[in-house]
């Protein structure tokens, strides 16, 4: 039963994170007029699909990411290549309206052609030899034209529907939208948790055993009104004062049963590991705060937790990159699907609230990692767009394709190494 719960939790967490990220790309792409032939969750063989309008939505076997295939983004390969024999249907202007790639059709008045040259991005034409006269013909592709394959129609994108021919700001928004939607997901999850759990107050809910709070005489129900001569109005005030006094003894004033009590308290110093090479010092009183349910405070709490999560993940990423140059890098710093599954297995046992919090943290991590300036990731492709905006011309397409291909191979190798490291770490 526990194994089944972990599997279901992993599928939900993975599915939500990838769907939100890729939907961000598609949301802005479609608003820029870019055609999106496919929206995929997962990689590898297709296990489920359905078509809505011009987009094929698919779920694929391997849980290692997802993608939105955008027309003219340089990553898709057209199904027609020179040397192929296909059938075409022409309109009254002798423009190609359908390129037929199988026999599952009911079209009439079609022509066969042996493709010699073709261009589905810029020139939008097919040039080839027809059997009835053995001569070479060049046919323009109509503005609304389709590939016909497996009995379904796949629209061929005209120039004005391709990523390549959009303005730099439209490209930037489309690429940045994936990480942006991950950041928004983190914000929504933390705000939702704040509404559900309530926001902390300056009252004491529970005192931890053998903690500074217990030693000082703090009790459940106490309301902290002064700490280190600073008036206290909420939990944030307490945290800020404790951060400044560190582990020095100070006086705390509380309200209890309508009376005021004072006592001395000394926060406990805790060293918490942030990354493999960096630790963070915290000072704790050792109690949990009471919470209250209000209309607006959860929004501020959610924003604050989101910013803290972003800072935490950003620090970890910078530390990881720095470790490459200091020789302290280890693949243990990275988690692939196997590592995420193992973490889900641990977190889900602590309850749904912790799983949601961890999902929010993972979402901001996915957004920031995708903004790294690595070709094939969103950050690397954004650099190409910035180059185009500065120099008023796109980078050479062959150079871009080569760089992206190298980046994709690099990312794939890293994924394989991380996955193998996770398998060794957790299962061998």
TrEMBL record:
Residues 191-254 form the PDZ domain. Its main location: membrane. GO terms for biological process: proteolysis. It is an enzyme of class 3 (hydrolase). GO terms for cellular component: membrane. It is found in: Cell membrane; Membrane. The chain crosses the membrane at residues 6-24, 172-196, 312-334, 346-366, 402-420. Its cofactor is Zn(2+). Its EC number is 3.4.24.-. Pfam families: PDZ_6 (PF17820), Peptidase_M50 (PF02163). PROSITE patterns: PDZ. The keyword Membrane applies. InterPro entries: PDZ, PDZ_6, PDZ_sf, Pept_M50_Zn, Peptidase_M50. GO terms for molecular function: metal ion binding; metalloendopeptidase activity. The keyword Disulfide bond does not apply. Keywords: Hydrolase, Membrane, Metal-binding, Metalloprotease, Protease, Transmembrane, Transmembrane helix, Zinc. It is a single-pass membrane protein; Multi-pass membrane protein. Belongs to the peptidase M50B family. This is Zinc metalloprotease. The gene is rseP.
């Amino acid at each position: 039963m526990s194994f089944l719960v972990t599997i279901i939790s992993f599928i939900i967490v993975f599915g939500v994170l990838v769907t939100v990220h890729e939907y961000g790309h598609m949301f802005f792409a479609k608003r820029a007029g870019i055609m999106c032939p496919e929206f995929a969750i997962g990689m590898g063989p297709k296990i489920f699909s359905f078509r809505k309008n011009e987009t094929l939505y698919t779920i694929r076997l391997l849980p290692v990411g997802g993608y939105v295939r955008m027309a003219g983004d340089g990553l898709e390969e057209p199904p027609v290549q020179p040397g192929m024999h296909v059938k075409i249907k022409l309109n009254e202007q002798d423009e190609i309206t359908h390129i037929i790639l199988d026999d599952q059709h009911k079209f009439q008045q079609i022509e066969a052609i042996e493709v010699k040259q073709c261009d589905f991005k810029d020139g939008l034409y097919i040039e080839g030899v027809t059997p009835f006269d053995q001569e070479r013909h060049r046919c323009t592709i109509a503005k609304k034209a389709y590939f016909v394959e497996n009995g379904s129609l796949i629209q061929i994108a005209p120039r004005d529907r391709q990523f390549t021919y959009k303005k730099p700001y439209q490209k930037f928004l489309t690429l940045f939208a994936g990480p942006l939607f991950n950041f928004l997901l983190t914000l929504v999850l933390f705000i939702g948790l704040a509404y559900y759990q309530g926001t902390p107050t300056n009252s004491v809910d529970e005192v931890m055993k053998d903690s500074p709070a217990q030693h000082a005489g703090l009790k459940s129900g106490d309301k902290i009104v002064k700490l280190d001569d600073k008036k206290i109005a909420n939990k944030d005030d307490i945290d800020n004062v404790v951060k400044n006094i560190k582990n020095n003894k100070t006086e705390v004033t509380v309200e209890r049963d309508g009376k005021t009590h004072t006592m001395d308290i000394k926060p406990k110093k805790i060293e918490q590991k942030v990354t493999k090479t960096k630790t963070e010092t915290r000072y704790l009183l050792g109690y949990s705060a009471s919470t209250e349910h209000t209309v607006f405070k959860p929004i501020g709490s959610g924003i604050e937790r989101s910013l803290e999560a972003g800072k935490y993940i950003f620090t970890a990423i910078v530390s990881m990159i720095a470790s490459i140059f200091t020789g302290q890098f280890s693949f243990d710093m990275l988690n692939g699907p196997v590592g995420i599954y193992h973490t889900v297995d641990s977190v889900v046992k602590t309850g749904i609230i912790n799983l949601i919090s961890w999902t929010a943290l993972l979402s901001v991590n996915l957004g920031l990692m995708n903004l790294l300036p690595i070709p094939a990731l969103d950050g690397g492709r954004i650099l190409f767009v910035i180059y185009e905006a500065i120099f008023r011309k796109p980078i050479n397409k062959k150079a871009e394709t080569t760089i992206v291909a190298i980046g994709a191979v690099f990312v794939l190798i890293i994924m394989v190494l991380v996955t193998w490291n996770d398998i060794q770490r957790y299962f061998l």
